[in-house]
Amino acid sequence: MSETKEKLFKGGGFLTEDLQANDVITPEDFTEEHKMIGKTTDDFVEGEVVPKIDHMENHEFEYSIDLIKKAGELGLLGADIPEEYGGLNLDKISSAIITEKFARGGGFSITHGGHVGIGTLPIVFFGNEKQKSTYLPKLATGEMIAAYALTEPSAGSDAMSGKTTAKLNEAGTHYILNGEKQWITNSAFADVFIVYAQVDGDQFTAFIVEREFPGVSTGPEEKKMGIKSSSTRTLILEDVEVPVENLLGEKGKGHKIAFNILNVGRYKLAMGGVGGSKVGIEVATKYVNERKQFNTSISSFSLTQEKLATMAAKTYANESAVYRTVGLFEQRMGALSDEQLKDGREVAKAIAEYQIECSLNKFSATECMDYVVDEALQLHGGYGFMEDYEVARMYRDSRINRIFEGTNEINRLIVPGTLIKKAMKGELPLLQAAQKLQEELMMMMPEEVGEATLEQEKYLLKNAKKMILLGAGLAAQKYQQKLADEQEILVNLADMVNEVYNMESAILRTEKAINKDGEDKHKQKLLYTQVYVQEAFNRIEADAKESLIAVEEGDTLRMMLSSLRKLTRHTPINVIAKKRSIAAKIIEEEKYVV
Amino acid sequence: MNIYVLLKRTFDTEEKIVVSDGRIEDESAEYIINPYDEYAVEEAIKQRDEHGGEVTVVTVGDEESEKQLRTALAMGADKAVLINTEDDVEDGDQYTTAKILESFFEDKEADLILAGNVAIDEASGQVGPRLAESLGINYVTTITALEIDGESANIDKDVEGDVEKIETALPVLVTCQQGLNEPRYPSLPGIMKAKKKPLEELEIDDLDLDEDDVEAKTETIDIFLPPEKEAGKVLEGEIDDQVKELISLLKNDAKVL
């Protein structure tokens, strides 16, 4: 991996950069330690968590607390915590693998994620020496459990508009907090809450609030549709005296913490999405191999195979994209000095550079999981609708992922918004690229695509990037400052950008693997890539067309559509045949395999 | 105490066995520590933690076996030895392994040697007892409890579901049965430490052996999967008729009477 560490990539840079296979980090680059960490996590979740899910679904949270402590004993809480505070300070890939593997634990993965991610990381990133040494060692062992309290009844997506107040007392020793925080994960048993409140009415600030502080209480357990095995309550703050030394970061700079933590929360949810998708494929495949109708197991029907193959191809693309993003964090942190690495703020900054990628991964991987569990349930037929089968719970558990940590709609809007900001600031050469494209399109002749492995996919990727530039350039020109009001167009663009990121990640991953051990060993990867790229390209084409038609009319539209046709001209592959080959392997192995 | 564990790398228990051209396909197989050997590793760590000393895990295998040794180190073993026979031994058997281990242990002062009851792949259960015989030390197979007190060892031995209580003296070799303990998961700190623990690699040459010394005593003639289980048959009618039919089936169809 050393050659990749020297190169630094800009967040969102992939739209105009021409990347090589060696530029991305892939699951095939995992070290032996990574694999061992994955196995320990897998064994722990399978052996300890899964047998307790039913208890936790009944809100017997003593099991959750016990499991968090057991996870702490194994080091599964300390990956992101520095060694001097009792953590393991592992690389981000290890931490991502742990998150992915916890997905099998259903709602407990949310308990774990709420603790190690959004609960603990604000202190890791923004805590001062005293706060870190007070809380982190106990959070690393699970002696203390953390929660994150941002949302309020009237402040959801508009998170900074919270009404919770913090007022310095006369002695200047304590802030007095009042307010209610809603839907707080881990609230039944958390010992520490990261709470956001407005100081003097408008200075949005984060605090570390201990459960034991007088005035802290929680409401009744919410009745949720899914992730029932995690605790969700309202956190009630009534004249809570929080010592001034528990103010986290800077007064009035709470949004900085919130935004940075959201980035991390998002990529971690994406990891969970990938993990959940893999579990969904496994559960579905085992069932269809077992279930017989018309005297034959239903896995022998090609329609079953089509479903499994689509699930797996999507999972492959998302897995490639999410680990690529984690690789980007690693590459950027590799460029930090030891001194900087010790400063959580620098680490958070390195992650924030990839805000676009975090948002893309979040909505893409959570929708991948939702698609997979929906199809997995469908393949179970009526049995899938019965709670006796775990697929019903997986279906319910999955749904929230499209909502929390920024709804997928908000995350979509972030993508073009941030891209345009970066272009305006001159950080990304998007405007130049869009201009160059306009000239190019005038003279563009159809290209002959060769037969070499992945050549067609790379060609489609190149043209998909151009379609984005075409659409974005046109929309920016037409609406200028008012583009933010055209949410449908922005979302189309976000979807196109996402497909491009996924396509490219799959292509580069497959290419990297083939370069290393030859095509024979990676047939499945190649099939996934071919199928995903073809189908993603079709979706991009539809989005581009819809957007152009909405933005332009008359002769200009006709000209634009003809440009689009030039970009989409290609001979499509036979997706149906390729999916049968994909499914054959999955059905044989009874799980997602690459 | 000087504690040694004999460990074998085996197929994952979830692997499907595919035989082609008289060989088991191992192309894309996943491997694990033989589950019975995991009990041995766990017991070794526990005994060391109680009585002090050092745990060394030994395997006869190839380069790939290093992964399973690292896992044992991550669980808490102190040292590992890989006796790599990749270049020297084509088709070894239990004799081969026991012979190699005998040479390895020649200059070692082992107080306790632990092995799995059987390996889940070939399931001979021979290597441990053979090694103890050739080293001239006591051995007890299929143990489910082990108490060491000074030079004596109190052992529960599983005998087809019953328990035999045995008292013996160190040095002793034991093979471990399910129920002995609950093997721990390698912890993350353990995994990170395992990287730095010593792992020595030897070839049979280093043990003053050559290929002829360890040549297998058995020859594998064929490898085949058990026949697929067919649907059962339910006899109907009067009891007497059922009995008659059963006897006839056992005589004529199954030919067991």
UniProtKB/TrEMBL annotation, chain A:
Keywords: FAD, Flavoprotein, Oxidoreductase
Domain Acyl-CoA dehydrogenase-like C-terminal residue range list: 463-566
All residue ranges annotated as the Acyl-CoA oxidase/dehydrogenase middle domain in the record: 147-240
Stretches assigned to the Acyl-CoA dehydrogenase/oxidase C-terminal domain: 252-415
Database matches in Pfam families: Acyl-CoA-dh_C, Acyl-CoA_dh_1, Acyl-CoA_dh_M, Acyl-CoA_dh_N
Domain Acyl-CoA dehydrogenase/oxidase N-terminal: 31-143
GO molecular function terms noted in the UniProt entry: acyl-CoA dehydrogenase activity; flavin adenine dinucleotide binding
Family, similarity comment: Belongs to the acyl-CoA dehydrogenase family.
Stated name of the protein: Acyl-CoA dehydrogenase
Organism: Lentibacillus salicampi
UniProtKB/TrEMBL annotation, chain B:
InterPro entries in the record: ET-Flavoprotein_bsu_CS, ETF_a/b_N, ETF_b, ETF_beta_N, Rossmann-like_a/b/a_fold
CDD domains: ETF_beta
GO BP, one annotated term: carboxylic acid catabolic process
GO molecular function: electron transfer activity
Keyword tags: Electron transport, Transport
Role: The electron transfer flavoprotein serves as a specific electron acceptor for other dehydrogenases. It transfers the electrons to the main respiratory chain via ETF-ubiquinone oxidoreductase (ETF dehydrogenase).
Source organism of this protein record: Lentibacillus salicampi
Protein name stated in the entry: Electron transfer flavoprotein subunit beta
Region forming the signal peptide: none
Subunit structure: Heterodimer of an alpha and a beta subunit.
Electron transfer flavoprotein alpha/beta-subunit N-terminal domain residues: 21-211
Keyword match Transport: yes
GO terms under cellular component: cytosol
